[in-house]
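Field reference: "sequence" (input) and "structure" (output). Example, Acyl-CoA carboxylase subunit beta:
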Amino acid sequence: MTVLATGLDPASAEYAERRTAMLAKLAEIEAEHARATAGGGEKYTARHRGRGKLLARERIELLVDPDTPFLELSPLAAWSSDYAVGASLVTGIGTIEGVECLITANDPTVRGGASNPWTLKKALRANEIAYANRLPVISLVESGGADLPSQKEIFIPGGALFKDLTRLSAAGIPTVAVVFGNSTAGGAYVPGMSDHVIMVKERAKVFLGGPPLVKMATGEESDDESLGGAEMHARTSGLADYFALDEPDALRQARRVVARLNWRKAHPDPGPAAPPAHDEEELLGIVPGDLKAPFDPREVIARIVDGSDFDEFKPLYGPSLTTGWAALHGYPVGILANAQGVLFSEESQKAAQFIQLANQRDIPLLFLHNTTGYMVGKEYEQGGIIKHGAMMINAVSNSKVPHLSVLMGASYGAGHYGMCGRAYDPRFLFAWPSAKSAVMGPQQLAGVLSIVARASAAAKGQPYDEEADAGLRAMVEQQIESESLPMFLSGRLYDDGVIDPRDTRTVLGLCLAALHTAPVEGARGGFGIFRM
């Protein structure tokens, strides 16, 4: 075995400083997670409970297998927007009757579970994950439909939700809808387009138009139950396949539906795996508070892979990028991890070859980000950094094996792309609280704007206002800093969640287990032209 040694000293002042900084950032993230789990707040939670109903996460807890984890995705969606944190929807991956499933649950304590633009983005991301990884989809439905004041941002793109359900079904991926309350207008198509439908007695209300709309459109008088109640749909319309007496009964029946799916994973679970030889708790003290300071990514790798066993590829060539082979919870992975931050031509070529090898061997790739981007300057431009960076991005773009990304530190510029950022369709992407991502660092971006403005003034023969320049730089730096932070990026669904570094191995293990539900097959050729 090639067990990684460690040079980390948990007794050092440097380690203590880094750990303290990480814990402070974690506390901020946990406070925002608490806002998301609070839903609509005490008033609306109490009103919901007063109606004898379970909360969204309580429904999920009863649905998944006892003592199994639920990997919640995008919990900070809509952060810093005009909408509630969490976007009135809970999404994630949980195991039901031994089957990994993609679960979505409307949060009816937030504006009745109505969908706003961020709800839509979050739901579409969930469907994307389900389709790519072939995960059965379980929809726990209780929603008043579209948030009408924001309908202009929902109505037209929102049709993709129903398209997704039909495409999942057409691909042989099961879809199950459990209706606990209102499922109105467009929301009626969620059960309408699901393979299996369960409705709760005297609770579920599924109709294209409720009694007021029917009255306005046709003059017909009707009531909720006769128009769209669970019993009507079970006895008369046939939309309900199963009639549940209450919420626990509905969730029990949903578990039985999943148990009868005859669902098989493309790749069996590998079974128990050796834990890392080094303490995962120490992941808190690796990343410096100042991301300009480098850190050794092998210290991270040693604390997340099985047995800390890592076979490094080309260790002496392109040392600013660490590449190599390992296993994580028994699943083979190829790892690309930024060491010193900057990517040079050698690192780019090394990455392209490594990605091709992983595709030949059908091995998923894990990208651990800490990069300020590709190197700039006359020497490097003349040395071909553009074509070599393009080679790496080409390889990432056309790779067919599943990709996982974790933003540990910096993830700036085209380096973010070459390391499989969001636009390059990683199956899952998570960030640590220490991560930052933008087109470039705040100081660099502000400096570039200053240089351009200074040159423009000189070209016009005008004096340059140094005081205004200082104010502009400070304002730009503050803006870019705030827009680079994990909560801001996670709020826009540029990642699938901000995680505690100590949970990295567990989160990645759950993702690897989920993605192996689908076949893992690499590209055999099919890459674009590599400029040599």
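The chain has three domains: 11-38+269-435+498-521, 41-259, 440-484.
The mean pLDDT is 93.
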